[in-house]
Amino acid sequence: MLQIQKYTPPLLVASYFITSVCIYTVCTAKLLQVFWFICLCTNFYVAGNSVIEAFMGIAPLRDARQASARLEAKEWQFPTPDEQLLHLDLIIVAYLPNEQDIILDRVRYALEQIQYPADKLSINVLYNTPHAIEPLESQLQGLAEQHPARLRVMSVPNSSSKADNLNYFLSRGLAKDIVAIFDCDHYPHPYGPRWAMERLTTRPGVDIVQGRCVIFNAAHSLQTAMVAAEFDKIYAVSHPGRSALWGFGLFTGSNGFWRATLLTELRMDDSMLTEDIDSTLRALSRGACIEHDMNVVSYELAPVSLHALWNQRLRWAQGWAQASLRHLRLAWTGKEVQRSGRMRFGLLSLLLVRELSYYLITQYVCLVASVVITQFPKTAHAWAVLIYFQYPVSQWLFIISVSCLLATLWITHRAKSEFIDPWMIVVFSVTYPVYLVITAVVGLYGHARLVSRYSAWNPTARG
């Protein structure tokens, strides 16, 4: 049965492409025009939505940079006095076999570098492991003994996931005011937690603050460079822009700060592959306010092998599909919690249109492939006409979509982190159409895994 589940997703995806291409090869010219128009209109919507979110993200980024410059000029004297700050439980979650080479470094970094009042900061290391790993576990316990007032190290029994580790901590009643969640590969900026706590202390209506995640091993390879550029687009452009446009933010699994009461009430659902998105949507269903803060920065590792990246993105795709299916009703239900029409449309776009876009993007590829088979282009001009200018209306849709894409990438360039070189943005921009197709294929693969009930969890290898 396990072998059947393992091979069913790739067979389903392959069958999807083969069937689609075959259908298009026998369609009439009129039907092809209809399909072509639908695909281009959808791509135009996706591109237009992306560029609007990008433009909406300019103001939050500008405000964050100005606030950082003002505070640096004041030698990092934050407005709120230390004695008025809330207590912070900073959690480092680890699957020990996968992160045994980095966990000691990250714990020492948190102890030494985080700039927060010592009497109001607790660092909690929550790890699970299928077998004892020595002398590492003893070294971790030794660190806890050296810093008894600031560091807890807990081996979570019977845990098989990050969600189990977090729930174990919450079930023990250890959370006080604010809980910050970090994956083990992260280096929080020394002042990152202080920025988050400034917002949470002075704005009681905010329930969750999600910070910006930056890839710091961008220079390792072309793959990590592309992931780093992608993360800048996501965390510095898309997330804050979506929040400004649609009125809600997202907790993305790491570098997120929760009010302890809300997190304790919701917990994490260990049946969900992306428990972070599920918890976000459950929080929104209760009227929680989630905001993005670009000064709450944390640095993380991109997967260094193609296999690790593939496993990571497949898990994300399947998890997003799983969470979208469960919570799509938020777009139209919710009498207990009032949601604006703007937020409902944003949720519909995020949970439905985004998932459907995988099919429309790949259908465009299948449509082009069918025409190549039946009317193989013999010149470069013929290829351009085939792919982009098959019909008069497609010229305008193509020009507008490309303009939206270039604008989005230009804004990403303005928002890039210190680890991104200009050539990385150029390569990312040139290869972005291919990236969209690959993302769509991965999305389909995630759907196929969900349909076949494939549930194996592959942790992301740390390099």
What does this structure look like?
By secondary structure, this protein is of the alpha/beta class. The protein has a domain at 87-312: Spore Coat Polysaccharide Biosynthesis Protein SpsA, Chain A (Alpha-Beta Complex), CATH 3.90.550.10. Helices cover 59% and strands 11% of the residues. The protein contains 17 helices and eight strands. An eight-stranded mixed beta sheet has the order 3-2-1-4-7-6-8-5. Helix 6 (136-146) links the parallel strand 2 (121-128) and strand 3. Helix 2 (29-56) crosses helix 9 and helix 2 runs parallel beside helix 15. The longest helix is centred in the C-terminal third of the chain and has 34 residues, at 341-374.
Short characterization:
The chain is an alpha/beta fold and 463 residues long. It has a domain at 87-312: Alpha-Beta Complex (Spore Coat Polysaccharide Biosynthesis Protein SpsA, Chain A), CATH 3.90.550.10.
